[in-house]
Amino acid sequence: MENNSTIWQQLAYLEQKVNQNHQQLQELNQKLDQLIEHQNESPKAAVDTIEYNFEQLKIETLEGTLNIGLTPHQDLPFEQLDLPEESDEEVLTPMEQQIHNQLLPYIRKDLPKLFNQYVDDQEIDIDSKQKIVLIQEIQDQLPKRIKEHTSNLQQNGRMIIDRDQVPALINHIKKEINQGVQIYLEKLKENHNES
């Protein structure tokens, strides 16, 4: 009789263990379903503008493999790639914002006129879409360029430029933009003449 009761106890214990395992399995299935649902709902990785200055390179022979951003041995499919959301926009100080606001009209109004004049003087063949893209690129890069110039004028994290020096800095950036456009157009003309 005692043997029967031990068997029943063992059966009850095994039944309890089976129920616990079954409950754990259900919880894992729910977690798996949640992870799959979360993965399906999460936004896919998107890459915005990537800027390369190929006109500055002279390549004779190009061989090998170029891996940008991921190592070749990484077994992570792109669908599972989750990139942190970072803003590409530069946060400008009030003085930098003032410089930016003073340069925008120049880029939007004066630069296209200078651009057209230079294109006409040098007889460069460029369509209006290329002009628009180039001017938009310059406008998009402007906050970064301003940051670079003002960071050179800082000491111990504090700006060492007076308000009287702002016009000189603005003129310097304008000259830099003009030179960049001129160099770009000269390279474009050289490439067009070579082909």
TrEMBL record:
Residues 11-42 form a coiled coil. It comes from the Bacteria. The keyword Coiled coil applies. InterPro entries: Spore_germination_GerPC (IPR019673). This is Spore germination protein PC. Pfam families: GerPC. It comes from Aquisalibacillus elongatus. Keywords: Coiled coil.
